[in-house]
Amino acid sequence: MKQRIEDVGEFLKENGIKPSYQRIKIYEYLVKYYNHPTVDMIYRELVPKIPTLSKTTVYNTLNLFIEKKITAIIVIDENETRYDAGTSVHGHFQCNECARIDDIDIDLSKIEIPIPEHYEVSEQHFYFKGKCSNCN
Known about the structure:
- The chain is an alpha+beta fold and about 140 residues long.
- It starts with 7 loop residues before the first helix and ends in a 6-residue tail after the last strand.
- The longest helix has 13 residues, at about 20-35.
- It has one domain: Winged helix-like DNA-binding domain superfamily/Winged helix DNA-binding domain (Arc Repressor Mutant, subunit A, Orthogonal Bundle), CATH 1.10.10.
- The chain has a three-stranded mixed beta sheet, with no helix packed on it. A two-stranded antiparallel ribbon has the order 1-2.
- It is built from four helices and five strands.
- α3 (about 40-45) packs across α4.
- About 30% of the residues lie in helices and about 15% in strands.
- β1 and β2 form a beta hairpin.
């Protein structure tokens, strides 16, 4: 879910990430716009402000954020990878019309999911598709 971070550089340091200018700006984008962006969306927004930015840097930075568990990867549509600064357990709803992705609160205490004995869950994903309120 959406989070507020006063000092992104300090937040990155606390999570074991060297806070370069490009990393700070990429994470600020994730937190500020919270639009579950693709690499292309982030790149197009930031390259006018950071002319030396490359798509490879965006990919590598996002992969580092995922490794450090400060960003989650969202793959609702097989052909598109998106990123989420909200790392708490929650669901996503993707509109079939406008492709917008919104967060959905999930109360796991009300859901009974039988996981076989001796299995260890490392990720949870809850995805829904349909029409958003704007397109309906």
